[in-house]
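Input sequence (661 aa), recorded before submission:
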Amino acid sequence: MRHKIAACLIFCLLTISIIGSTVAAADWPMFHYDSSHTGYTTDAGPLTNNVLWKYTTGGTVESSIVISGGYVYAPSADNNVYCLNATTGHQVWNYTTGGYVWGPAIANGYVYVGSDDHKVYCLSAQTGALVWSYSTGGYVYTPTVANGYVYIGSNDRNVYCLNASTGAQVWNFTTQGEVYVPSVSGSYVYIGSSDSNVYCLNANTGAKIWSYSTGNYVLSTPAVSGNGYVYVGGYDHNVYCLNASTGAQVWSYATGGIIFSSPAVANSYVYIGSEDNNVYCLNAQTGAQVWSYSTSSKVLCSPAVSGNGYVYVGSEDHKVYCLSAQTGTLVWSYTTSGVVTSAPALSDGVLYIGSFDMNVYAFGTPSSTNSSNVVANGWVPSPTPAVAAIVVAVALTGAVSFLFSMVSNPLGSLGGKAGEKTKGILPDNIKSWLEDFVESRHEINVEAKIGASYLPTGPEILAYGIAIVALTLAFSYAEVNSLANIFEVLPLILVTSVLVVLVQKFVSIALMRKLGVWSEYKIWPLGLVLFLVTTLAFRVPFSSPTRDVEASHEPAEQAPPSSLTPEAHSLSKHTELFEAIVPASEILVGVLFAGLFFIILKSGFTLVGSTGLAMCIIGSFFESLPIEPLDGKDIYDHSKMIWAAIFLGTLILFALWVLLL
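Predicted structure, token format:
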């Protein structure tokens, strides 16, 4: 268990290194950036198509992605909305609705999503827990949040205004067609409808202020600029500029195809895509074309414009494009494996976008997600990979231990002559190697160890080195999702691993030796294999490359009494108590260290505290499992009550950590 705790502490140290610098990324809290859906942020955009990470969902990612507080919220056609770590792409939580999920919006710690199951959902941004839901008569599209209200469009022909805190309906307005994404600016709501109209409504009452007919469906979301104009695309191939107060047309511009894309407005220019395969830049005052860029297919995606002068947009040709906002010159492109209609989102120099290939992509450079950003968030695995890692580790440990016992003594359970005869079926050298692989208990010589005090032996020094290297690489890999970023955290995690392995292990081993129990830190081949498997497969290191093994009462029968301390003599007289208390104390040391790191976490050292907490909780829980050769098995065999208390305690801690942190 102590080695487990060491792994735990390693987690914690690596957290510490990472937490060193924290810079909050800029938010992109709803479709097209804000409630007026201008699609423009003063934040910079990436000048490279380097993929920092990608996350695969269970369905196409067609709708908009949002970012808030260092987390990405992405919808998927697999009926889920996902919360991902913006730096690493690791899943934090997901929530399943009854239908296709449209782009979310986030405000005041809550995530709002519409679904094809006819509902809008309010979820906790931290945990994904349901706060409330509201049912309409049709599909619910991407919500807009403003001034304490949630505005949603539905294909039941209504736009709804709901109280953002309770979900109670404030008002609804009925059109003659589907209503898509509402835009809110000041005291007004602007919507497009498939009844061919653009509407302006009172945001507080839903009363109609004006409407403008384009003569065909309006699938585009209006963008409301600060200069008093509304820009919107039409099914009739036109881009319209309307007076925001009166609805009067200021100008229109004809493209060669249907416009589903929503316009972005920045620095006196309008950027919009068309089904004629082009991205257009128009003068916001006159509607005159400034430039156009031709892709290889329809552009349904709504462009995003960065503060450093670039336009980001996707196309049905499977590509994501970065264009110069001034000239339309191609800066870079990236080919995904599917159509790109998801609206781009920009945050802290990184571009986030989805594709029909079921992936969420993050584009940027390691410098754009600087080390302060990489270390900004704590590491907590999502429930699914955490459970998978547990199942695999338990299954493999149990299977290997069972096979070892069967091979070394197949008829041992029968006892008598049959059991005795099969006891030596394997040569001693092979049996010793297998025993060391499974348990790492081979050749513990108490007589030779007594008197060595707290100084590490030669094999222990090797074990410390292997543990430090393995932990450093594993937790660096778990913390980041791009090998380009791993070098940013590697030095700090190395320092953390050294401190955890040496300091925490010393405390644990010193405690046992003080009690007269020889505790030795050894390489655990089986644990190392499990450690690598769970890290690579699930990014959840759920094992340990080393372990602490004890010997006192068993070798005491052969050891001269003079070589044992009085405490060891006393323990040898109470075998069952010894074999329950010693491993239990090792697990409890891990729990105590978890408490220490929880205090660090709550003190504001997010990454240090959360990673240390992870190491300790994982180690304590893993070691409490009642399978050979873990401490939980020794405790279970000699005191089922003590085992049950420890196992349930560590299980609850593990569940709370994964689900709540």
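Checked by second reader. Residues 51-369 form a domain with the Methylamine Dehydrogenase; Chain H fold (CATH 2.130.10.10).
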